[in-house]
Amino acid sequence: MLKKTLQSLGAKLASSTSVIHMKWKSLITANSIRRYSNSNSVKIDISVSTPREKVDCLVIGAGVVGLAVARALALKGREVLVVDSASTFGTATSSRNSEVIHAGIYYPRNSFKARFCVRGREMLYEYCSKHDIPHKQTGKLIVASRSSEISKLNDIMNRGIQNGVDGLRMMDGSEAMRMEPELQCIKAILSPLSGIVDSHSFMLSLVGEAENNKATFSYNSTVIGGHLEGDQICLHISETKSVEEWDGRSILNQDLVLIPKFVVNSAGLGAPALAKRFTALQSSGVVPSAYFARGCYFTFSNTKVPPFKHLIYPIPEDGGLGVHVTLDLNGQVKYGPDVEWIDAPDDISSFLNKFDYSVPAKRAERFYPEIRKYYPNQKDGSLEPGYSGIRPKLSGPHQSPIDFVIQGEEIHGVPGLVNLFGIESPGLTSSMAIADYISTRFLR
């Protein structure tokens, strides 16, 4: 894949190889090696025989946010290269979520999450309508099942109003239950602007638009680190197969060094670990700690008619929005996600998305009591394991949620680098707004 990418970048590499080698021979001897140590003591060797190529804009990560950024940069006439360690786009968090279009209710006023969710939701609905992306504005009910939750529901309502979310309405439980006869609650917020989207079709469309505007995609290509030469960032790229076969002890060689004018670290679950492997950032103190929360989804197997027409959300819990009801575009009901805090993997495993995505069937036992708080007719044995996803969080258990973190040169001091950290929910909804912000705020 890397060889094909080099070819797509232009035949100029072949003609300039001797010039590149002459340049570097003037700096280091022909047989010498520059060795870089990363924060986890992994040694990376860069020799004069390693191909080097300058690129205009580089996006690390082909999840929904990376794809939206690539499209936005390409539409501005920039030459864009997207690299991802997987064999195709959207294989991690972007394909393992609820596929909900959020309205922008839950997030602190003027936060990135609030601003990007509200704007991103508008952009997403418009984009889906224009490009025939399957989606549906289903509406959502956020419900209080007991009186102790009413104050929290009022707080959610006030926050949504502060964030400029239109159409929110507080209603008594009796009215909500007339709308949804299977529901049990004492009070609820109606959010008519919430919905669902076919995330794969959306991502496929973003890829198509980016490619139509001359963006290039290099899959099976893993960014394993980077260093600075003057004010230029040099990124170390290896074939994913080579990284997978690495024994964890020997020197980790790279197949290519890319020198971009502008780079966006949109590596999702691996973004903080990757940033810490950029030598210029290792002692900077600007890379936040990463936390990981796995969430499982179960499908409602014993029903032909969905019990609900709206999305149903309980009061948020620590680390998430609670075990909620989501409808897919085929009418299937799924519940989730729950929250299970897991340990961080080693860097290489995070780059390769080597997380445990299994869904133990016995975990359904935890779902039934949560679901019955608002849907008492949920029968034992009616849930089947679906799938799981992992949230790339910046706060741990019992800590206050942290906003999206978007770092430019003014924070970390590296020219042309933008780091995206903690892009969890509402990342899908916010993706196009994040891309617009990056392409207008940081692009020179």
Q: β content, as a range?
A: 25-35%
Low-confidence stretches: 10-35
Structural class: alpha/beta
Outline type: globular
From the structure provided, what is the oligomeric state, counting identical versus distinct chains? single chain
| Alpha-carbon Rg, integer | 23 Å
Q: Can you give the helix content as a percent range?
A: 25-40%
Main sheet, how many strands, which sense, barrel?
A: 8 strands, mixed
Determine the number of helices (DSSP H or I, runs of at least 4 residues).
13
Describe this structure in words.
The relative contact order is 0.18. The protein contains 13 helices and 23 strands. Strands 3, 4, 11, 12, 13, 15, 22 and 23 form an eight-stranded mixed sheet that branches. Strands 16, 18, 19, 20 and 21 form a five-stranded antiparallel sheet that branches. Mean pLDDT is 90; it is low at 10-35. By secondary structure, the chain is α/β, with parallel strands linked by helices.
